[in-house]
Write a structure and sequence with these properties.
Layout (H helix, E strand, L loop, with lengths): L3 E7 L4 E10 L6 E11 L1 H4 L7 H22 L12 H10 L4 H13 L7 E7 L3 H18 L3 E5 H10 E3 L5 E4 L6 E6 L4 E8 L2 E7 L5 H11 L6 H16 L3 H4 L21 H14 L4 H29 L4 E5 L6 H14 L4 E3 L3 H4 L3 H13 L22
Parallel strand pairs: 1-4, 4-5, 8-11, 11-12
Antiparallel strand pairs: 1-2, 2-3, 3-7, 6-7, 8-9, 9-10
């Protein structure tokens, strides 16, 4: 099978990313050579708001997509400098596609007049789910490039990207990933800032929902509790560091240090289904912080440790139940929170002790947070199963609430 080059675009939240993948093989032997990979994190820009501010995310995507595209193509050695002038017809078409992003339109015209068409086979772009204003920027940018370069567009579900990124493994060659044997059915758990969801895959592209969050996602809970403890956005990594310090502290004089602190609830741990709820645990932390007043450093460490313990307990409880209710042979975890060291360790321990006959797959650290590489990988799997593509004239709509199982 001839290698296929895919340009991938990701703008679902506060990471702007463009990647160029050279792909090959079938669903059991697929390889992904990352020829170019450019990513810009907006986290520092959103820190002042304590979370992602959608209109700011939209503006940042528009400002950064063309520079990232230029960087990815240069890294892949696919840039072809030229001197050309777009016709008025071409400019009018692009201007209409990007009428809400005039800055992006101007940057793209300058880029198109300085660079010839690269040797690419398709464009994969995140269609959803995510922040809709942010998604629209990526979708319209993909349509614009598809128009200029006469390429098909593969609309990708962001969550499928996370699942597939969790089953690939790094190879001996730098920036090369490959699929090894993946026994089906596959049960996926997406843990991210926007999602907490179990998805069962009978095969790639054949998905059903097993359970999900009824309110806050696990990532939201981490960020909100981090804010209560004075940790700036994005709060997850800082909270986890504080929690580890709390666990280390408890190894010394646990009774002395926990005086006045209460155990947090394990929401829906006994509900009998695979759904989650994290708003209650966030509220319980709020009440405890209010009751304690100005927290000492030790108290902050211990509250963080108890929160991470409680959330991990729920994840493990629900994972056991989801495995019992399905006939899954492989369990994969994807999304930004899958990078949490404590949750990963507890899942690895669970599978080594209780599910040694099943396969556990956790994503490479470079693929756990939002990125364009996983969108290109999912795009290639869609190509292999002959999923329909669209051209630039198709009114491809961003979908903030897009499901995998629809």
């Amino acid at each position: 099978m001839r290698a296929m080059r895919i340009l991938a675009i990701e703008t679902s939240c506060d990471e702007t990313a463009v990647a160029l993948l050279e792909t090959g093989g079938d669903v059991q032997t697929a390889t992904f050579d990352i020829r170019g990979n450019a990513l810009y994190s907006q986290a520092k820009k959103h820190a002042a708001f304590g979370g992602v501010y959608p209109s700011l995310a939209k503006r940042e995507h528009a400002a950064n997509l063309v520079p990232l595209l230029d960087g990815a193509l240069n890294e892949a050695h696919l840039s072809i400098p030229t001197t050309q002038t777009l016709s008025e017809e071409q400019k009018e078409y692009l201007e209409k596609l990007l009428e809400r992003e005039p800055e992006l339109y101007s940057a793209l015209v300058r880029f198109a007049e300085a660079n010839d068409t690269p040797k690419i086979d398709a464009i994969a772009v995140t269609q959803g789910p995510g922040l809709e204003p942010a998604l629209w920027v990526g979708v319209n940018f993909a349509r614009s490039l598809a128009y200029l370069w006469n390429l098909p567009i593969i609309p990708v579900n962001h969550l499928e990207g996370h699942m597939i990124a969790s089953v690939v493994e790094a190879t001996e060659k730098e920036q090369m990933f490959a699929i090894t044997e993946v026994p089906f059915p596959v049960l996926g758990l997406i843990l991210s800032g926007g999602h907490t969801e179990f998805v069962l895959a009978e095969s790639w592209g054949n998905y059903s929902s097993v359970g999900g969050t009824r309110d806050d996602s696990i990532g939201e809970a981490f960020d909100k509790v981090a804010r209560l403890l004075g940790i700036p956005y994005p709060g997850g990594p800082g909270l986890s560091k504080l929690a580890q310090e709390g666990r280390d502290l408890l190894k010394t004089k646990p009774v002395h240090h926990t005086k006045g602190l209460k155990q947090l609830p394990r929401p829906m741990a006994q509900s009998g289904d695979c759904d989650f709820s994290f708003s209650g645990i966030k509220t319980a932390v709020l009440y405890q912080v209010q009751a304690l007043g100005d927290l000492t450093k030790e108290q902050r460490m211990l509250v963080a440790a108890e929160f991470e313990e409680a959330v991990s307990d729920v994840v493990l409880k629900k994972t056991r139940l989801a495995l019992e209710q399905t006939n899954a042979k492989t369990f994969v975890v994807g999304g930004g929170v899958s990078a949490n060291t404590y949750i990963r360790k507890r899942l690895e321990k669970l599978f080594s002790e209780e599910y040694a006959d099943l396969t556990l797959r956790l994503p490479d650290a470079s693929l756990s947070t939002d990125n364009a590489v996983m969108i290109g990988m999912a795009g290639y799997f869609m190509h292999l199963r002959k999923a329909p593509t669209v051209d630039h004239s198709h009114e491809l709509r961003a979908s903030g609430t897009m499901k995998m199982h629809e």
